[in-house]
């Protein structure tokens, strides 16, 4: 099977101008923000839920190593968005945490803490319809974590 042209894939683009980057002397915050900016310059593609065999079949075995790297970038992006959102939340920056975590959800990140922290923000706002929307989005995830995430969300 011939490899497909990877330039036609819908890569994840990090919207640097829409995320709440800020200048700070806080080393932790700066480190997280720098990592996100670094990842924004790389190709990011979510292959969560696909086996190695499915990836090779769908995209061609010759593309496997490249795609594995793009998927690793997705994993790093998800983890760092969670770190960033959690850090902002813990420091009382709920609006900025919401922006970061909503972006993570839009990327279909499958870290349970993203969904539960975002649900906590919505709960503080009394915005229960947003919690229901979050459940609907989580139900569409193609990941083994889906049931765990939905179970966590049902506690809200």
How would you characterize the overall build of this protein?
By secondary structure, the chain is mostly helical. It has one domain (26-153): Alpha Horseshoe (Serine Threonine Protein Phosphatase 5, Tetratricopeptide repeat), CATH 1.25.40. Helices cover 62% and strands 0% of the residues. It is built from 7 helices and no strands. It has helices at residues 27-40, 52-59, 64-90, 94-106, 112-125, 128-139, 146-153. The radius of gyration is 17 Å and the shape is globular. It starts with 26 loop residues before the first helix and ends with a helix. The mean pLDDT is 94.
Features:
mainly alpha; Serine Threonine Protein Phosphatase 5, Tetratricopeptide repeat; 156 residues; TPR-like_helical_dom_sf; 7 helices
Molecular shape: globular
Measured distance between first and last alpha carbons:
47 Å
Structural class: mainly alpha
What is the arithmetic mean of pLDDT? Answer: 94
Percent helix among the residues? 55-70%
Order of helices and strands: HHHHHHH
Kindly give the count of domains: 1
Number of strands: 0
**CATH level-3 fold name:** Serine Threonine Protein Phosphatase 5, Tetratricopeptide repeat
Count of helix runs: 7
State which percent range the strand residues make up. Answer: under 5%
Biggest sheet descriptor: none
CATH architecture: Alpha Horseshoe
CATH class: Mainly Alpha
InterPro entries: TPR-like_helical_dom_sf
């Amino acid at each position: 099977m011939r490899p497909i042209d990877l330039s036609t894939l819908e890569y994840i683009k990090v919207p640097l101008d829409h995320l709440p980057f800020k200048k700070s002397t806080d080393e932790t915050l700066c480190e997280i923000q720098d990592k996100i900016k670094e990842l924004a310059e790389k190709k990011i593609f979510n292959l969560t839920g696909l086996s190695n065999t499915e990836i090779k079949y769908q995209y061609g075995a010759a593309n496997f190593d490249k795609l594995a790297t793009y998927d690793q970038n997705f994993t790093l992006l998800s983890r760092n968005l969670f770190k960033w959102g959690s850090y902002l939340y813990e420091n009382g920056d709920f609006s900025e945490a919401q922006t970061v975590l909503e972006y993570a959800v839009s990327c279909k990140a499958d870290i349970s803490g993203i969904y539960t922290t975002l649900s906590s923000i919505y709960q503080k706002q009394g915005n229960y319809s947003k919690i229901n929307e979050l459940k609907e989005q989580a139900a569409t995830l193609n990941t083994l974590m889906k049931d765990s995430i939905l179970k966590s969300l049902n506690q809200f």
